[in-house]
Backbone:
């Protein structure tokens, strides 16, 4: 079965507001959810919709955090093991 092609992003659209998912994107997401459910799998709990990620990226580009704040957040998070006493 041939794989559908993924459209290449247009650099001119980089500053454009986030768009709603197309019918094809919605259909693919629905099919993926149905296949996973049929296999007894659940989507990861940390999955974030693409439009939300696009909005977050836009906010980060408009208002980047200073290095000190990024370091503070990294130390507070505690790294991959979640232990703040041993930051990564």
Residues:
């Amino acid at each position: 079965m041939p794989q559908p092609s993924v459209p290449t992003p247009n650099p001119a659209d980089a500053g454009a507001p986030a768009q709603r998912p197309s019918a094809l994107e919605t259909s693919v997401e629905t099919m993926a959810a149905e296949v996973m459910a049929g296999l007894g799998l659940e989507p990861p709990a940390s999955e974030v919709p693409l439009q939300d990620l696009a909005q977050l990226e836009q906010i980060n580009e408009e208002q980047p955090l200073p290095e000190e704040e990024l370091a503070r957040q990294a130390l507070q998070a505690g790294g991959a093991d979640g232990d703040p006493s041993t930051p990564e």
Observations:
- The radius of gyration is 18 Å.
- The chain has three helices and no strands.
- The first helix runs from residue 23 to 38.
- The chain has a mean pLDDT of 74.
